[in-house]
Write a structure and sequence with these properties.
The protein is α/β, with parallel strands linked by helices. Helices cover 44% and strands 11% of the residues. The longest helix is centred in the first third of the chain and has 26 residues.
């Protein structure tokens, strides 16, 4: 009879020693791979050539946190009080730890937030040593956060940056990230004789090689998806192509369709297929199933040839050209339009431009987590002050574009525990390859930004907020959103880190016509991609015009279960309910150039 295992296996020290030798060799190989950026032909050494990616951020982090520290050093008495408070917290912790070591129960001095998954394993609380490590980290982290929050003599932008950068440091130095301070990792490493670390080092080597010496932490299996089969799945045809975009028209699935076509303007800082991940959660596919003739812009992944493509170029060669081509394909001179994230910002700019020039072909606008007023733009404002924008512009001037990885890293830094360190630990310490996940495949499929476009966006939106102030000038035309009178559906999501719900709410008041503000659950992606049906994860709130204070609007709003999609379709249909026979893409005046999803979406950064 087999003996039941009652505890962890005894570590095989000979196997651990062999693994350590292999680990040392793999570490050497990884170090060699990490030096590749220093050896680019014709660029000299790192000191002679360009800064490595991330160096600018580290410099800015150091400068910002040093400024906060200096404010405390200027007032020794206040600094002493803060140090005393920290010492008292650690004294209480030591007293609690001694009580536990003597076999008595003791209440924790500090506990993690309920949604903090890093310390969920029972050993973090049951084992006195690891409980001491955990609470020490939490005490020090919260003390540091209070130091930033209460620092005197610094402006709010600097405070915001300090809070953001401190969050990055605290996430990086969490005891949950290291073998010797994480009970789960220590147990696994001992049980596997360090084999998990060998697997992790192999993946680290692969990721360094894939990034040319810069670490690209994998979040999913990048070989598990094929365009048109696993992602970007809705059938359609590319009916037009220029230097900036491909225009996709989707194949109808109903006998009749709404007469007025719909143009979707996705962001160019990501690829459009977030709205078409798979048949079960494709917003595009669902729109087609409701009887809408859907057109989508698929932006090019730009390179040095596109360095001078600015916001006006994206408006004229993107949205306005797409409307022209929709007219050729369908015979319709009017469209409904929907914009997602910065695609929505571009759509708002286009509406203001058309209102100023009398070219009013867009008859209704749907904005999905879109900002037009950047006063409350969230953590991305950390990267948008004059000094940092100049650094970004200098980098873009070298190649004509901003590398896609830099924007992807910025988005990951908004949620470092979930999008960075959980994968570092899973991949390189646990030695587990991440599972195949279409959303994270899309997240890793980065796009570049043309220098002229990105500079205009950073300066006019995040830095100077000119659109909301009526000061933005495009094509020698001053833009005024108050002249935009078309019906607007303005969707925000409650936990959005990129386009905060308050920011979208404030932006609603900048338009001159009727705005239906809707607040969905969850965040920037999950709150938008929330299909109807019994498995709809999040509800939404409606409450009439976005007036007064945001908190008061939320309190009086009506909460609905399920997806916002049917509510939106009813709103859209009411604008223009007339129907016509379904339109087959590629059979009219614009023949098919290739099947959807086209060629531009396949371009890698």
């Amino acid at each position: 009879m087999a003996t039941e295992r009652t505890g962890p296996a005894t570590p095989e020290f000979e196997r651990i020693a062999q693994g350590a030798n292999q680990l040392a060799e793999m570490f050497r190989q990884s170090a060699v791979a990490s030096l590749k950026p220093f050896e680019q032909p014709g660029q000299g050494t790192a000191l002679q050539g360009h800064k490595l990616q991330g160096a600018d951020e580290i410099d800015e982090m150091t400068r910002t946190l040093t400024r906060v520290a200096e404010t405390w050093l200027k007032d020794p008495e206040k600094a002493l009080q803060a140090q005393t408070k920290l010492n008292q917290s650690f004294a209480a912790l030591w007293a609690s730890a001694l009580t536990r070591m003597q076999g008595a129960a003791a209440a924790p001095v500090v506990e993690p937030e309920a949604r903090d998954k890093r310390f969920a394993h029972a050993d973090w609380s049951a084992n006195p040593v690891f409980d001491l490590i955990k609470q020490s980290y939490l005490i020090l982290g919260r003390w540091a956060e209070e130091m930033v929050e209460t620092a005197e003599g610094i402006d709010e932008h600097t405070r915001h940056k300090a809070e953001f950068y401190l969050r990055q440091l605290l996430s990086a130095y969490s005891p949950s990230n290291f073998v010797m301070t994480n009970p789960e990792l220590l147990r696994q490493t001992l049980e596997e004789g360090g084999a998990n670390l060998l697997r992790g080092m192999k993946m680290l080597q692969e990721d360094l090689e894939a990034g040319g010496g810069q670490l690209r932490v994998r979040q999913t299996d990048l070989n598990a998806f094929t365009f048109g089969e696993d992602v970007a799945v809705t059938p359609g045809e590319v009916i037009f192509r220029n230097d900036l975009m491909e225009l996709i028209q989707y194949t109808p699935t109903t006998e009749t369709v709404l007469k007025r076509p719909l143009l979707i303007v996705p962001p160019w800082i990501n690829k459009y297929y977030i709205l078409d991940l798979n048949p079960k959660k494709s917003l595009i596919g669902w729109m087609v199933s409701q009887g809408i003739t859907v057109f989508v812009i698929s932006w090019v992944n730009p390179d040095e040839r596109h360095r001078d493509k600015d916001f006006e170029s994206y408006m004229r060669e993107g949205i306005e050209t797409a409307i022209d081509m929709i007219g050729v394909a369908t015979g319709e001179t009017e469209v409904a339009a929907a914009g997602y994230c910065v695609g929505g910002t571009l759509l708002a700019v286009t509406l203001a431009y058309q209102a100023a020039t009398g070219n009013r072909r867009i008859k209704s606008a749907t904005f999905l987590t879109t900002q037009v007023d950047f006063t409350h733009a969230g953590d991305l404002k950390v990267f948008a002050d004059e000094g940092q924008i100049k650094v970004i512009e200098e980098r873009m001037a070298e190649r004509g574009y901003l590398e896609g990885a830099r924007m992807a890293n910025a988005f990951n830094m908004l949620r470092p525990n979930d999008l960075i360190w959980s994968y570092v630990v899973n991949n390189y310490v646990r030695g587990k390859a991440p599972a195949a996940f279409d959303l994270l495949y899309w997240n890793a499929d980065a796009t570049r930004m043309p220098a002229a476009n990105h500079s205009f966006y950073l300066r006019n939106c995040y830095l100077n907020n000119t659109l909301s102030k009526g000061q933005m000038v495009l094509g020698n035309v001053r833009l005024d959103l108050k002249k935009v009178k078309v019906p607007v559906f303005n969707l925000a999501t409650r936990e959005d880190h990129i386009a905060p719900a308050l920011s979208v709410f404030e932006g609603s008041g900048k338009f001159g016509g009727k705005v239906d503000y809707v607040l969905a659950g969850s965040g920037h992606i999950a709150g938008v991609v929330n299909p109807p049906g019994p498995k709809a994860k999040y509800g939404f709130r409606t409450g009439g015009p976005a007036r007064g204070k945001f908190e008061e609007w939320v309190e009086r709003a009506t909460e609905h279960e399920g997806s916002w999609w049917p509510y939106w379709f009813k709103w859209l249909e009411e604008q223009a309910p007339e129907r016509v026979p379904a339109r087959i893409p590629g059979t009219g005046a614009l023949p098919s150039l290739c099947p959807a999803p086209g060629t531009y979406v396949r371009m890698k950064a």
